[in-house]
Amino acid sequence: MPLGLRGKKKDRCRETAKLVVFETADPVPAAAPAPAPAASASRLQFHTQLAHGSPTGRVGGFGNAGELYAKIAEAFGIDPAEIMFCTLNTHKADMDKLLGAQIGLEDFIFAHIKGQRKEVEVLKTDEVLGLTITDNGVGCAFIKRIKEGSLMDQTKIVCVGDHIETINGKNVSDCRHYEVAKMLKDLEKGQVFKMELIEPMKAFEKLEPRSKGGTLPEAKISRGRETLRLRTKGPATVEEMPTEVEEKAIKKVDELLETYMGIRDTELAATMVEAGRDKKNPDEFAVALDETLGDFAFPDEFVFDVWGAIGDAKQGRLE
Description:
The chain is α+β, with helices and mostly antiparallel strands. The chain contains 6 helices and 13 strands. It has helices at 65-76, 177-185, 244-261, 266-275, 282-293, 300-314; strands at residues 20-22, 45-50, 57-60, 83-88, 102-104, 109-123, 131-135, 141-146, 163-167, 170-171, 192-200, 226-229, 237-240. Strands 2, 3, 4, 6, 9, 10 and 11 form a 7-stranded mixed beta sheet that branches. A hairpin with a 6-residue loop joins strand 2 and strand 3. Helix 3 (244-261) packs across helix 4 (266-275) and helix 3 (244-261) packs antiparallel against helix 6. The longest helix is centred in the C-terminal third of the chain and has 18 residues, at 244-261. Residues 8-19, 27-31 and 206-223 have low confidence and may be disordered.
């Protein structure tokens, strides 16, 4: 589509296959330089527990997921690499409450650590495996969703929350979600493949009492609109939650990411919406995306549709 959005032609990176969807839970670079950290950001303290059961600890002074995991590991005397992912305000492996780039100032953090290992061999009888892969931002890809009725749904040993450690003997423990997703996508149909998985530790696997703080309600407990925003570069900052208009735009852009590229990534969508916040036309928006997220090489058609979605949200045309 000859939109003339850029002065240079970029390679397309559209992933049209519906085989494996991959998402991210770690923050992406912001569209503009990070604002100066609020004076209170470095002093914030959060309550935390190991999800399978532990006393309550306190952590603070972190700016990204890796630093947070290191603080949690220090509090409980474990290796940071043992932490698979964190959930907010629930000790359950609830994929809708995964810790991402923002933490409510009163959120309670539960760390899920590696538990039992298991192996599975699967005959790939369908191009579509039915897995949604995400990661914790520091090299632990795990299963976020399993599509009902899919090939992997029929393989009951494979569960939501499982970390994919190896594929056909190749260790993928330090690979990002998109790398693991591509390996699974490239597996040949009609062939048997093997995965080694690690499931999150369950409460009965380690007999440690859960402190009184472990009886927190499952609902979100933070009050107000402020959150701690974790960043891949620069310090964490205290920010307001996205407005209703921004939330609708982010949701629509996330849907466009799946349509054009085969991924779902709300943090990437939020960064794109932020990049278009003060832009006057699609050309300015395209340049901003190139500067901030140039490695993705977004197709021109996609950029134009994202610009349209942001405009629709501002005009109240999105439900």
